[in-house]
User: Fold this.
Amino acid sequence: MNRNINLDKKVNQESITDTSNQLSEIRFQHRLHCVTLIEQGCSYSQVSKWFGEHPRTIERWVLNAKDCGIEGLKDEQKPGRPTKIRDDQARALKTDLTKLPTELGYKASTWNGKLLMTHLKNKYAVDLGLRQCQRLLNKLKDELILN
Assistant:
């Protein structure tokens, strides 16, 4: 059975990121609510029944809150390789992509992966592979269209 879901690119890129950020905030508030109830004298078993969490999970949240404060209840940083392009560079690159390559001194009239690879290396000292540049170009073009 084929279970592929076809999503509009606008929905896929924009709303998934927004939803993920909202869910992270909702999880944080859920944990905070549970910890607050424990601090007000409710038992672990009561709170676990009310919220459908294992008592040990709630105990871990309470310990994290005691050790790290409220920050201990937030989602941890997800693992993965850090990006090679800093946020300030990404913003500047978006501005660059709103211009024609000829305006920036290139002979080509349209942006492509190879040209972006050259531009990143020359202007930002960032070395990305061709396929990465093609993906980045598509992502940034979609963001520019949406904004």
Summary: The radius of gyration is 23 Å.
